[in-house]
């Protein structure tokens, strides 16, 4: 019995060594070159602002007043959209496209632009069935949250390029 467990452990050792050298690492927020950031222009309870706050590295402090920040991220447009992309011959909805559009700019507290006004757009296709309306609504909520997280990660990667403060 002891010999069998020793053989099993010896057989799994090369597999573990291969996995250890594959370069796998958990996804982390990118390191940012500044310490204080102000998020302005977001609506109260904005899902995009919540996603940015959730993904912000711990090395960055979010401040309320732009005068206290080194960098200001201003939301110019944040919109969730839903468009019908396919119908049946009876006019019933079969396919939809859900989109999240986010336009922003990044500047210093004095107003000097660090990142030109940019727009990010994410969209997902979604099938639709009226008999599963509640489930499709929950799926749509998850799709929106996933897209907002993707956009927030893209914004953080763009903030990583900000060097001159």
UniProtKB/TrEMBL annotation:
InterPro entries, sorted: LPS_assembly_LptE (IPR007485)
Is Membrane there in the keyword field? yes
* Pfam families in the record: LptE
Q: Which residues form a coiled coil?
A: none
> Where do the TM regions start and end?
none
- What are the UniProt keywords, alphabetically? Cell outer membrane, Lipoprotein, Membrane, Palmitate, Signal
Q: How does it sit in the membrane?
A: Lipid-anchor
PROSITE patterns, A to Z:
PROKAR_LIPOPROTEIN
Q: Which Gene3D superfamilies does the protein's record reference?
A: Lipoprotein like domain (3.30.160.150)
> Is Plastid one of the keywords UniProt gives this record?
no
Primary residence: membrane
Query: What does the UniProt entry say about where the protein is found?
Result: Cell outer membrane
Q: Which superkingdom does the taxonomy of this entry point to?
A: Bacteria
Family affiliation: Belongs to the LptE lipoprotein family.
Q: Briefly state the protein's biological role.
A: Together with LptD, is involved in the assembly of lipopolysaccharide (LPS) at the surface of the outer membrane. Required for the proper assembly of LptD. Binds LPS and may serve as the LPS recognition site at the outer membrane.
How is the subunit organization of this protein annotated in UniProt? Component of the lipopolysaccharide transport and assembly complex. Interacts with LptD.
Protein's name according to its UniProt entry: LPS-assembly lipoprotein LptE
Species name: Azohydromonas lata
């Amino acid at each position: 019995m002891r010999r069998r467990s020793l053989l099993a452990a010896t057989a799994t050792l090369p597999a573990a060594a291969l996995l250890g050298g594959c370069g796998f690492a958990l996804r982390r927020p990118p390191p940012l070159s500044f310490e204080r950031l102000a998020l302005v222009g977001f609506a109260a309870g904005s899902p995009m602002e919540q996603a940015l706050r959730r993904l912000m590295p711990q090395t960055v402090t979010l401040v309320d007043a732009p005068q206290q920040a080194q960098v200001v991220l201003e939301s110019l447009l944040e919109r969730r959209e839903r468009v019908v992309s396919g119908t049946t011959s009876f006019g019933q909805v079969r396919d939809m496209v859900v989109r999240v559009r986010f336009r922003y700019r990044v500047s210093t507290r004095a107003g000097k632009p660090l990142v030109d006004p940019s727009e990010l757009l994410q969209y997902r296709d979604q099938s639709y069935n009226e008999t599963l309306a509640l489930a499709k609504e929950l799926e749509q909520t998850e799709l929106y949250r996933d897209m907002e997280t993707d956009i927030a990660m893209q914004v953080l990667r763009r903030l990583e390029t900000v060097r001159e403060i």
